[in-house]
Amino acid sequence: MGEFELIRHYFAAAPCAQGGDGVVRSIGDDCALLALPAGEQLAVSTDTLVAGVHFPEASDAFLLGQRALAVSASDLAAMGATPQAFTLALTLPSASETWLAEFARGLQSMAQSCSLALVGGDTTRGPLSLTLTVFGRVPVGKALLRSGAQVGDLLCVGGELGDAAGALPLVLGQRETTPEISAALLARYWSPQPQLALGQALRGRASAALDISDGLLADCGHIARASQVALQIELARIPLSAALRAFAGEEQARLCALGGGDDYRLAFTLQPDLLAQLQADWPEVRVIGRVLAGSGVQLLDAAGQPIEPPRGGYQHF
């Protein structure tokens, strides 16, 4: 199968490639054309996933298609952006029709869930890697940034943490567990759900925000540096799922949440008087700490005493 036949058959013909809100021209020309409403800005983010680095070589193609787009779409959630479109640059060792059909099906599933239209990309031969660029729109001056946290703000997260990191022994075939626990943890790894609606609800509320991709400690460090403040995290308040606790035990579950990464939940800072209404609309939101004068990330144990944070967070180099 040739390159252009591959594109036409598996991607250009997909439902998610048939245009959408703000898509003037999709696949078929040298560039896609996107239109923005007056008073809105374009939010753009790119992620590359490489076989053997970000996912196992023999990953299920359907699950990989879901995960690849979810990872990128989560960056739009972190900015409070409304999803609009995405491109896919796909490098393949060979053009397996079975693999391509399943990958395209997974991609379509997540594109539909996130309201994203496929508007272009590229294909080439080589070691398996996926590069996705997502486009969203946000009202001028309303984008969520990392740099606005204020002393006295609460530090919040958008739900339970650590499940994806806890699932790694299952993904790699190193351990087994009950079907119920396995299904819960693997779903968080392979099908993370970008918190797009929460991100949009935080516009005008959150003083700083990002998505947790490299681990809670590392990502909170980004907010602390950008905002020139200190973030204090109370270990006992970090939300953990029953499945993760049962599979990994309490101590290891907390380590997964602190440094494991791949959560794709939002972490954000918020004035205390805004919390009650936000939790009424989003009950999964949890307070895990607060913003202080100073620098860096401080961790408190169950007794409220400072402890040395474990070294954590994913780094490529």
Brief synopsis:
The chain is of the alpha+beta class. The chain has eleven helices and 13 strands.
Characterize the structure shown:
It is a single chain. The protein is of the alpha+beta class and 317 residues long. It has 2 domains: 3-139, 60s Ribosomal Protein L30, Chain: A; 154-307, Phosphoribosyl-aminoimidazole Synthetase, Chain A, domain 2 (Alpha-Beta Complex). The protein is built from 11 helices and 13 strands. Strand 12 (296-300) and strand 13 form a beta hairpin. It is globular. The two termini are 37 Å apart. The mean pLDDT is 93.
Oligomeric state as shown: single chain
Succession of helices and strands: HEEEHEHEEEHHHHEHEHHEHEEE
Query: What Rg is obtained from the alpha carbons, in whole angstroms?
Result: 20 Å
Strand content: 25-35%
State the distance separating the first and last CA atoms: 37 Å
Query: Which structural class matches the secondary elements?
Result: alpha+beta
Low-confidence stretches: none
The pLDDT mean sits at 93
Fraction of residues in helix: 25-40%
The CATH architecture term of the largest domain is: Alpha-Beta Complex
Number of DSSP strands?
13
Describe the global form.
globular
* Annotation field: number of helices: 11
| CATH superfamily grouping of the largest domain | PurM-like C-terminal domain
Strand order of the largest sheet: 8-10-7-11-9-12-13
By CATH, the topology of the largest domain is: Phosphoribosyl-aminoimidazole Synthetase, Chain A, domain 2
